[in-house]
Amino acid sequence: MALMFPRLARNFVKNGYFPTDEPTLERVLTALAPSDGPMCILDPCAGEGVAIGETAHALGREQVRAFAVEYDVERAQQARQLVDRCIHGDLMDTLISRQSFGLLWLNPPYGDLSKDADGNVGYQGQGRARLEKLFYQRALPLLQYGGVLVFIVPHYVLDAELVGWLTRHFAELRIYRAVEAQFKQVVIFGRRVRQRDQASESVKATRALLLQIGQGDAEAAELPVEWPFLPYTVPASPAEPEHFYRVTMEPEQFAEEAGRLQGLWPTLDTHLGAAQQSLRPPARALSRWHLALALAAGAISGVVKSRTGRVLVVKGDTHKEKSLQTEYTERDDGSVAETRILTDRFVPVIRAWDMTPGSATRGEVLTIR
Question: Residues near 282 by Cβ (< 8 Å), separated by ≥ 6?
Answer without folding.
Answer: none
